[in-house]
Specification:
Elements: H1 2-35, H2 42-53, H3 60-68, E1 72-75, E2 80-84, E3 90-92, E4 98-99, E5 107-108, H4 113-127, H5 133-146, H6 152-161, H7 165-181, H8 187-200, H9 203-213, H10 219-269, H11 276-297, H12 305-327, H13 336-358, E6 374-377, E7 380-383, H14 384-406, H15 408-418, H16 420-425, H17 430-452, H18 464-477, H19 482-503, H20 505-522, H21 533-536
Antiparallel strand pairs: 1-2, 1-5, 2-3, 3-4, 6-7
Amino acid sequence: MPANIFAFLRTLCLSIALIALAVPALAASFEESVGKFATDDFSDTEEAIGEVASSGNALAFPIISALQDERLMFDADTKKVYIKQTDGKAIDAATGAAVDAIPDSASAVNLNNRLRRAIDAALGGLTLMSPDLSARLSAAQAVFKSHDEALLPTVETALAKETNRSAKQALSEARAAILLFKSDASEADKLAAVATVRSRGDQDALALLTEISGGDQPASVTKAATGAITSIQSSLTIWSGVQNAWYGLSLGSVLLLAAIGLAITFGVMGVINMAHGEMVMLGAYTTFVVQEVIRTRYPALFDYSLLIAVPLAFVVAGAIGVLIERTIIRFLYGRPLETLLATWGLSLILQQAVRTAFGPTNREVGNPSWMSGAFELGQITITYNRLWILCFTMAVFAILLAMLRYTALGLEMRAVTQNRRMAASMGIATSRVDALTFGLGSGIAGIAGVALSQIDNVSPNLGQSYIIDSFMVVVFGGVGNLWGTLVGTFTLGIANKFLEPVAGAVLGKIAILVLIILFIQKRPRGLFALKGRAVEA
């Protein structure tokens, strides 16, 4: 029995001695790895990245992150490496001890593109098992792009523990990317990896498969990769068309908001209102004022700022529209050239008034949280602000149609549009209808400004970007016809986005203009002809 106790104590002492000897050795190994950053040699830096990332040391992530942000400093004289923290303080990279100041002779560790890829891969490996889902997804994406073979064990460990479906898929794709470039991977594993990458189907997958198709791979793998490339290219072509169609709908919704008020005033009153763009601009500045008040006094209400701005912009722009009609427009009916010149001059006055009040520079209008960000749908990206603007535009269009169909004002407007003299003989006060119509059109332009403030610069020239396109839409769709305006905006928006990749932005617009001119030659009243005063004249 004493002999057994003696043997146990001897084993215990030997283990303690080995641990005591191993700890300084591990520490020295980590410090030596960190010290390689001080040589300022790209090869040594690459070795240091791999050794530090695989060390398991708590300082590994701060060191690699600092290197990526160019905050990892080294002193060539003392061979010391420091981490410059974001709060201005500094620590010793090897020990984590705080330092009073980084020496003046220290400089940032130099990087090249190869090292940046190694950093991305290292950070990916360090964050593959992070509790933060977004961090795990970003890490898996970084590993997929770098396909660093050294990270395969880490990826497989993370994949075995992962429970989230999207993260598990991302890790599977990262593992497949590594296996494709792993020289000793089996043919079956590589074929399965090709299928996994193929199912991803994006540009990164296409680039990866293109890279291995020309390399030293088994014939079956090369054949599978070639087939996957063809399939992905066909799929991306279709998705590109879908993306262009979405961009066209987005552009069309913006144009519809800007043009719908013009369609009403132009259709009912026959007025060429060159100041319509300034009503849009006034709506955008109303949004800016609302947000400034909320920021300074009621910051908790910022997410509701646009909901507050919409009725205010309608009232402000509508009231100014009624004032313009009562003081200027009503004296110029039947004189289109004078109306055009008067409203053009008025647009310059309004622009200068806004410059005087708010300055000539762009004003910041923020996005509420529910309009920020984007999401993926297949291989296209849809931003929330564009999606909400499309929904908002269709809601405004539906409300306007209901107002024209079911209200007394709508009935009077339709009557005046179809036959002004007959409507007047039936007791309709056409001058009052004109004022309210101009105010309605201007008010809708104002709420268009609220929407446009989320996707465009708020400046005195905001409305000028849309006035010409708005007139084109109204003439193309049919003067005074809201359904024609709807069809015209989306038709022109989608056509423009499909022409841009082929002819360029400028030539695309010129081509659209030429097509509209040719169309109007054949169909002067537009897509949907509507009898009204402007047509009769």
